[in-house]
């Protein structure tokens, strides 16, 4: 009777990786269109655009501050 609890102990541990493998194999295929890979990013161009956007924002902010100051005065 004492050996009854040990019967499936080792085999259950051996089965666990197989269950994981089966779960991965049975995963459903993705639905919808398969998109092509994204083109490579040119970080130099990205940074130039980012700097330009920040400069534009700063100029806009200054112009709005000047407008507000002119209205108050």
TrEMBL record:
Region called Disordered, residue ranges = 1-41
State the source organism's domain of life. Eukaryota
User: Where are the compositionally biased (Basic and acidic residues) regions?
Assistant: 12-22
List where Pro residues composition bias occurs.
30-40
Q: What is this protein called?
A: Uncharacterized protein
The lineage, from the top, is: Eukaryota, Viridiplantae, Streptophyta, Embryophyta, Tracheophyta
